[in-house]
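Spend some time on the protein that follows and explain the fold to me:
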Amino acid sequence: MELFDLSGRVAVITGGNGGLGLGMARGLVKAGANVAIWARNNTKNARAMLELRSIGTGEIKALQCDVTDETQIESAMAATLAAFGRIDACFANAGISGAGTAIPDITQSGWDNTMAVNARGPALVYKHVSRHMIERAQNGDAGGKLIATSSDQSIMGVNRSSDYAASKAALNGLTRGAAFELARYKITANALLFGFYETDITAKADPKFAAWMEKRIPLRRSGDHTGLEGLAVFWASSHSDYITGQSLPVDGGLSIS
């Protein structure tokens, strides 16, 4: 038996049509999992679905879903269960970079928008996914994985990023609360604090920022997307069953520099 075989398992990845989410999805389908992508952009959803179907054995479904809209979450949840019958792992990955304003320039609309996507969105996704997992547990099929895409910025200071940092710190708190509350159902919750990876978000930054970051990172490089594949498989597998409530930096040592 393959050590990390996920055949028959079902994973949801919000924002899974690009960046970190797509990198994790690649690993899950290669390990045999069925994957449902919940993301806003239908064009990117279709492109991601075609790629994933070409590299793995698992079934793929891509659903349009804005995590700030609970009605869309409910629809995506229903469609996923109709297609696959269950959800074993949920990667709360959808997120935005924030308003990019200094603290004296914070606006209510900018702050609220960042919080809506990065903090409230995962909470609402977990609300509906955990209901399903709890129901399964009550019927003798306990277990589930909640994995959040957080950020080093939740534990570090960065200029013009207070809303983003606060939203990810809230996500870390949600992770700890979920881990404690849901442990009785053998549902684990963990957050991955990613450092500097090349994504659509970081592509918008000044190129000098990337060069500065790579000098600051002890391993002297940005994160590689290939490495995300095995990371996702580990967290979706039974080998992470005894880890819960943790906020783990995945950053080449950036958070200790």
